[in-house]
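User: I'm putting together a teaching handout on how sequence relates to shape, and I'd like one worked example. Could you take NADPH2:quinone reductase from Rivibacter subsaxonicus, show the sequence you're using, and then write out its predicted structure as tokens right after it?

Assistant: Happy to. First the sequence, then the structure tokens directly below it.
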Amino acid sequence: MAQVIRVHEIGGPEVMRLEQVEVGDPGPGQARVRHSFVAVNFIDIYFRTGRYPMPLPNGLGSDAVGVVEAVGAGVVDIKVGDRVGYLLGPQGAYSDVRLMPAEVLIPLPDGISDRSASALMMKGMTAQYLFRQVYPLKGGETILYHAAAGGVGLVACQWARALGVTMIGTVSTDEKAEVAKAHGCAHVIVTSRENIAERVREITDGKGVPVVYDSVGKDTLMASLDSLQPRGTLVSNGTSSGPVVVDTTLLAVKGSIWLTRPAMIHYATPRSQMLAMADELFGLVLAGKIRGEPKQVYALHEAAEAHRALESRRTTGATVLVP
């Protein structure tokens, strides 16, 4: 029997229940993975609250690391005993063991621990597609990145530094500002007491930035637009404060702005692309240019408290569950 967090209705953290379910042998193309760490991501809250619809009842979570216990027929590039991580596939990572499509499993290098990988899989792959695919950074740019002390943000700080990119990051508190700076963020704007667009213009000598990566959404939309150069790009990669609704006329008024809303699935498939993304991330980790460890660790049965902490912005960096 597996220990699994499931939801039977949408709502607050209290709708998550710890249940026991039967997990059988893997079928064709599947592998059974026993988890060592399960990542908690803001997208999990979107599913729990119904912002992203899913059939109910259902599990939560799409990002975990562990070891392969068994493989089904037709699985050739994953074997029993392999340490793996994943960030695609069906919801249900909040569990101690589960069946997964083998095609989404990513082998972990020997030099990267399960604990470190749990903080870097989704966050690091997200930074990869934002910085290397959605708006490819070449080095020398100055960019604006919202939520710089978050899970993806701390990886982005380090990746920007490795690329030779000057990153302006936003955070909500002075304490988070220090964390972002320690991870390589060149300039930090504390949103509780500073005007974002004014500070960006000051830092860039009035020019603005060519790209803004905005995972906050509704609350930062205007500041993001006002921080961009003419024909700049707004990458709306999250909506933690609420959905973004834009009159396209506004994009013209603000400087013929390009707006994109990317999703991991469209950048990490097919499998060959996903593995190439992971190789680039792991290469930087093994070279010591990107480091990641969970900042908050909860037991699996404490998943509701992990969600409360994440929603209330009490966290920095990555949050994980330990089965």
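A couple of points you could highlight for students: The first strand starts at residue 2 and ends at 7. The chain has nine helices and 16 strands.
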